[in-house]
Amino acid sequence: MDHSLFYIGGSWVPPLAANPFAVENPATEETVTHISLGSAADVDRAVAAARAAFPGWAATPLSERRATVERFLQIYKNGYEEMARAISTEMGAPITMAREQQADTGIGHTQGFLDALGALDWEWHLPNGDTLMRDPIGVVGLITPWNWPVNQIALKVIPALLTGCPCVLKPSEIAPLSAMIFARMLDAAGLLAGVFNLVNGTGPEVGAALSRHPDIAMMSFTGSTRAGAAVSRDAADTVKRVTLELGGKNPNIVFADCNLAERVAGAVAECMNNSGQSCDAPTRLIVERSVYDQVVDLVRAAAEATEVGDPGQEGPHIGPLVSGLQWDRVQALIQAGIEDTGRLISGGLGKPEGFDTGHYARPTVFADLTPDMRLWHQEVFGPVLTITPFEDEAEAIRLANDTTYGLAAYVQTGDSARARRVARQLRAGMVHVNGAPHNYGSPFGGYGQSGNGREGGLLGLEDFTEVKAVHGL
After folding, report:
1. Architecture of domain 6-247+448-470
2. N or C: where does the chain have the smaller number of CB atoms within 10 Å of the terminal CB?
3. Annotated catalytic residue: which of 205, 245, 270, 455?
C-alpha cells in the first residue's frame, strides 16, 4: 500500500499538501513507513464525500447494508494474519497476542453488531397510540487510539455503516497501518463511494477539524480524558452528539474467600496484558487485610514471572510500550510512586535487562498504596500495578469508588451473593467477577470521567441513531 494516501470518496487520493510522518516500530525504534498528516482542507473533502453519500446510504435497504458488512467480514477473515502482523508492527503487541486478541476484535465486534441488528427497532408504537421511528443520525466523525486500534475502529465504523451513517475516520497517527488495511478491506467489500473515508493526522489538526465541522452530526472518540474534553469543547458550537470512551483507574477487589493463587495470578496477567496499555486494565488491587501479606507475595512472584520479549516472537510475553513519549510518561509515574513512598516490590525504573533498544518497561508493582499518592489517581497506561489493603466490604467498595473514573471494576470472591451485592454498588460501567471476560455484543463504556455512551452490540447501534415521535398515524 501507498501509506501516504487517504481514502476519500471511494478512492485512494493524495493529501492536498505534503506533510510526511514517520511510523515507528516500537520494538526496534526503526521507521517502517511514512504516512501523510492531513489538514482541515482534507477533512472538508472527506466530509463532503460523506455528506453526498448520506441520502443514498441511508435509503439503502437494511438487508443490503448488512450484506456489505458480511462481505467485509469474510474479507477480514481472509486477511487476518496480515492484520495481526500490522498491529504487532505498529504498536508492539506480541504477535501471539496480536493474533489471539487484537485482530480477533475485528471479527468479534463485527459479528456482535450483526447479531444485535435484528433487535434494533426502526419503528414501534407507544401505548398512547403514537409511533416512534428511528433514523441514522447523519455523517459521523470517528477518532480512534493506538492501543487497541482495530478494536476501536470496529466498534465505531461497523455500527455507523449498519445504521446508515457515512463516516470519516481519523485513526491514531502512531498506529495507522491496521486502519489503512481496514479501509482497503471495506473498499473490496463494494461499499458505496463516500460512505467510509479515512484521513490520517493529528488530534489538534484533523481531530479538531472533524469535531468542529458543521456537517458532522456526531463525534465518537476513544482516547485520553484530556483529549475527550477537547473534542467536547470543539463540538459544542455545533451542538453535535459526542460519545466518549476515555481513561480508567480500575479497581480489583480481592476477598479472602476466593481462590487466591488462581485469581491473583489472573489479576497480574490482566493488568500487564498489552503492556498495561488498556483503559480497562485492573491497576488497583484492593485486598482483604487478612490475606494481604499472602497476596503481596503472590503478586511479586507473578510480576517477576511476567516475561518481556520481542513482539515478533511467538509466546505469552509482553512487548514494548508504543513510543518513547509513552515510555517517558510511565517512567515519570513510577518515579512518583517511589517519591510518594509506595513500597516497590517488583520492577522499577528503566528498561528490562537486555533491552537497550525499544521502548520496553519493567513490570512494576507498588504495595501499601494509599489514596493520597499520585499513583492512586493517575492512569499510568503501562505495566504498573498497585496494592492496597481493606478491612471490610464497606471499605473495599469505598476505596474502589474513590476515583474520578468509572470504566471497569473487578471482584474476586467465592461468595456469589457478595459478588452481586458488591457489583451493584460499584460505580463502573463494567464489572468482571472472578476473571470473567468482556463478551462481544455487550456494552463497553463507563461512568464519570471514563466517558459517556456505550459501544458494542445493540446499545452501540442505538448511539448512531435519532428517534422521532410521529403523532396521528
Report:
1. 3-Layer(aba) Sandwich (3.40)
2. C
3. 245
